[in-house]
Amino acid sequence: MKKLITLLLILSFGFIQAQDNFIHYLDESNFKKGIQKGVVVVEFNAPFNLSNSFPDWKQLEHCKYYRVCIEGSPILKKRYKIFSYPTIVVFHNGYVERKYKGNIMLELEITTEKLQKSIDELYLDKF
């Protein structure tokens, strides 16, 4: 019985770890709650441009990372003035702090290091 419980704990821990590898999406119904607390990075993108999504999102620390499909969220697209894809918006406690837009080739020019620096500046504000 002890072995079974140990095995179940190990498997459940692995499942929880694996969930972190999936992108979480926000839409108009859960957006406000998703950006409310702490540093949150939101990538707005369109289905036709998913190949140009920010590739290193798993490497970002001290933040939550979400994506928004603009086709299913026209109100968010309008509210945050998303005109180029992808666009990354960095929120801190629900407020827009930084915005990085895709270029004419529909690619982001922001590096992981620069984005992490912006996140760290906002994260350290709480200390």
Q: Can you tell me the CATH class?
A: Alpha Beta
Helix run count: 4
CATH superfamily: Glutaredoxin
Question: How many independent structural domains?
Answer: 1
For the structure shown, list the relevant keywords:
127 residues, alpha/beta, Glutaredoxin, 5-stranded mixed β-sheet, 4 helices, globular
Describe this structure in words.
- It is a single chain.
- The protein contains four helices and five strands; from the N terminus they run αβαββαββα.
- It is α/β, with parallel strands linked by helices and 127 residues long.
- The protein has a single domain (23-124), classed as Glutaredoxin (3-Layer(aba) Sandwich).
- It has a five-stranded mixed β-sheet.
- The radius of gyration is 17 Å and the shape is globular.
- The termini are far apart.
- Mean pLDDT is 87; it is low at 3-19.
